[in-house]
Design goal:
- It is built from 14 helices and eight strands.
- By secondary structure, the protein is an alpha/beta fold.
- The radius of gyration is 20 Å and the shape is globular.
């Protein structure tokens, strides 16, 4: 019998993903608490049963409430992190300072690698909470489609098989199918690096390079993802699963992808500052290009597509030149 009995949860982050997950889990739980960083957003959710800032078209069930006080999350058996990667450590430290119990299960839904430390999200949580059970939920999971009850698949990874099974049971619904994995490193790396490749795909679309070029770029991005991901501790088979090629496909081609929109705008000649300002939300691929580039250099892995995105974002290289240089590299065997 599982040691995990999850009847309620707190979700840190009342953005698009946090709101979508709350709506998804509402039929399975007695109560769900969205922890917002904006008291006005929390008040709006409690008053109108809608998020006034994100996914506001969707009514939220009565068992969803909101707060701006992290202390309210301490009584929950499960805490879900649905915040930008840059906020994972500070959010975890807030809970630790308040005395989060060691028995509380933690689930990260954030995709990235921390700048300077090179740590994955589960590693950050383990730094702060050395004794708590930790899981990861990832895959091709755009919040807009989750909120709209469209068919979605995901993968839950954990070093604790009982937690993985409990989370699989919790998240499984007729329109939401969940698989489990013990390759925590692999699923996190896949979820992080695909954001960078989505920017590259967006640039190719913005430059009008055509479907042939974008298909080739995404295919080579998968090869690059496997090279880098296995060097950083992931398993090859993980990258041909939902958290690898699955997430890569949806992020590189979906209209919901913020990272693709960033690349698309860069490809049409806009500056990064213009793009980020107009987006109004976090596109994880922008800061994660820095941390993943650092990780690739430290591991000594050849990453030409990642390097091209880095040169556009942080070395002011025009997207057209970066893409041309990718094509003009010395020929290589396909499996190299």
């Amino acid at each position: 019998m599982s040691e995990f009995h999850i009847s309620s949860t707190a979700i840190l982050g009342a953005g698009s993903l946090g709101t979508a997950l709350a709506k998804l889990l509402a039929p399975k739980l007695d109560s769900i608490l969205l922890v917002a960083n904006d008291p006005n957003c929390a008040a709006g959710i409690n008053r109108d049963h809608r998020n006034p800032k994100y996914l506001s078209a969707f009514a939220l069930p009565e068992n969803i409430s909101a707060t701006a006080d992290h202390h309210d999350a301490l009584a929950m058996p499960l805490v879900i992190f649905a915040v930008p990667t840059i906020a994972i450590r500070s959010e975890a430290e807030k809970l630790a300072a308040l005395g989060l119990p060691k028995t509380t299960a933690l689930l990260s839904c954030s995709k990235g690698i921390e700048r300077n430390t090179g740590e994955r999200m589960s590693q950050i949580l383990r730094d702060v909470f050395p004794d708590n059970p930790i899981g990861i939920l990832t895959g091709p999971n755009h919040a807009e489609e989750i909120a709209n009850d469209l068919v979605t698949c995901a993968v839950v990874a954990s070093e604790n098989p009982q937690l993985a099974d409990a989370l699989q049971d919790l998240f499984t619904l007729p329109h939401f199918r969940v698989y489990t994995s013990d390759d925590v490193a692999g699923v996190e790396i896949g979820g992080a690096v695909k954001n960078v490749y989505a920017i590259a795909a967006g640039m190719a679309h913005g430059l009008g390079l055509g479907d042939n070029a974008v298909a080739a770029l995404v295919t080579r991005a998968l090869a690059e993802m496997i090279r880098l991901g296995t060097a950083l501790g992931g398993k090859t088979e993980t990258f041909i699963g939902l958290s690898g090629v699955g997430d890569l496909i949806v992020t590189c081609f979906s209209e919901h992808s913020r990272n693709h929109r960033v690349g698309l705008a860069l490809g049409t000649g806009k500056s990064l500052e213009e793009v980020v300002t107009s987006l109004g939300m976090v596109a994880e691929g922008v800061p994660n290009t820095l941390s993943i580039h650092d990780a690739a250099r430290a591991a000594g892995v050849r990453t030409p597509i990642l390097d091209s995105v880095y040169s556009v974002l942080y070395q002011d290289k025009p997207a057209a030149i970066a893409m041309r240089e990718l094509l003009e590299r010395d020929p290589r065997p396909e499996n190299s």
